[in-house]
Amino acid sequence: MLSGSIPMELGTLFELEMLNLSDNNLTGNVPEEIMKLSNLSSLNLSNNRLSGGGEVLLNIGGLKNLQVLNLSHCGISGRVPASVGSLMKLAVLDLSKQNLSGELPMELFGLPTLQVVALEDNHLSGNFPEGFSSLVSLQYLNLSSNAFTGEIPTTYGFLQSLLFLSASHNRISGIIPAELGNCSDLQVLELRSNRLEGQIPSAISQLSRLKGLDLGQNNFTGEIPDELSNCLSLTSLLLDSNNISGHIPDSLSKLSNLSMLNLSSNKLSGAIPSSLSRISGLKYLNLSSNDLEGEIPKTLSSQFNDPAVFAMNRKLCGKPLGRECANVRRRKRKRLILFIGVAIAGAFLLTLCCCGYIYSLLRWRKKLREGAAGEKKRSPVSAGSGGERGSRGSRGSRGSGENGGPKLVMFNNKITVAETLEATRQFDEENVLSRGRYGLIFKATFQDGMVLAIRRLLDGSIDEGTFRKEAESLGKVKHRNLTVLRGYYAGAPDVRLLVYDYMPNGNLATLLQEASHQEGHVLNWPMRHLIALGIARGLAFLHSVSMVHGDIKPLNVLFDADFEAHLSEFGLDKLTIATPAEASTSSTPIGLLELDPESSEWEEFLLGVKVALLCTAPDPLDRPSMADIVFMLEGCRVGPEIPSSADPTTVPSPVGES
Q: Active site includes 551?
């Protein structure tokens, strides 16, 4: 950790582009010489103990190329100087956790490239700054823990790129403007601890990407709008300490991603909807200090057994409050009456059955005495033979139940062979995901919602002992870009199963085919770069553990729910009896002559040729290892000449000429 003052000699480094002295124990003033480094693009002095007021920033206008300015938590006080408005290339401004005061300069609102503004934990004052609404590139705005007053401007609805807006712990009044519903990309809205009033606008339901909504400690009235259930991405909903009335909407149960729900210290009434227990990911719930009534749903009380969750609701009863509901005694009395009635009815039926049995027994004995034919039908010999057959049948059934069979070995989960058969519908043809050289792959959907991929190897596999040993070894090969073996089953010689994670987004071959029909909009350059990087990482890991894939092709590159690439079809040769190698590719690319030179397939072929020339250089020492390829791909970035939304079929390949 550095200490002392910042050396002024740094001001002689005229070609310096980045200066990061954060998280140290530096003191004193910032040398004026540093403010003359015109090539500086990033300046980070955060988390130090610098002295001086706003004069530290007075000469900052000389840093014409500055893009990132981070002076967070470094002891600066005074006003934000107007010279900040001269940094026309500034994209990130972080002046948080200081002692800054006064109003923001108007020049700050004229920076066209500003994307991140962090001014929280200061003493800034004045009306809520409307000037930020002119910064159409703004994505992050944090004005919390200051002394701003006035109302939220309706012009903030023009900030289409805004992702994060926090103005908590200020003195803002008025209502939430409905125009905020136009900020379609907004993910976090925090307005806690202000003086806002009125109803919660239903326009918030238009924010389909909203994940966090915090409106606690204000003066909101009215009911919770049902339309909030349209914000399906919501993970945190905090409406505590307001004057909200009405019932808790049953529609909140549609927020399946919700993990935090705080409705405490309001005027909510009515019963607690039992549907809240259907929110499987709910970890925090607070309904205390309301006017709720009735019995707490048992499914909810078993999930949240802390009395504080439901406290200060005088008309609530049941667990975990330990307060018996008024209708519980009536239910107990009804149960007792029902039990007595059932007992009497049961005794009556039992009496009838006994009488019927005695009557039948008497008639049977009478028939025995009356005829010889009836006596032969009931002879001891016949009965003995029948009993012997029944005994043999019983022994056979019991033996099959006791013998059992080989178990399904799972490294993490606990599932049985019977559950697997049910999940694949007895390996029904409709559940086949793919067919490969090693057998069929089935989709297995279990009753608890878990989905796995089950590979059934071809007949004629190796013996059971060797299979188990090789499967255990293969299960230890784990990497984020490989399909990891989760379990195996070795039954009869013709039944060998391998259990993998289910990859819901298909394979690279299908993705490339979709891209060719949609003019490259499915696979932009950043996505292709991530796929190539994932494949290279997976191969590099296999090579590091002395394994060779041997069959790299688009069909063997699978995608999980996050579209991360996973290599499959590796390490299976040792689990099957050796057969003549099947060529995965031919010496001549089939269909190459049919490709349109202006199509995405032609671009992909040229890209493959370039990579092949690089990896098959005449001198082996010139060829890169997979680790080198991973390093190159990790260093590769989509440059300004190729935007992330560009059509890959109409821009130059990011791979350099070999």
A: yes
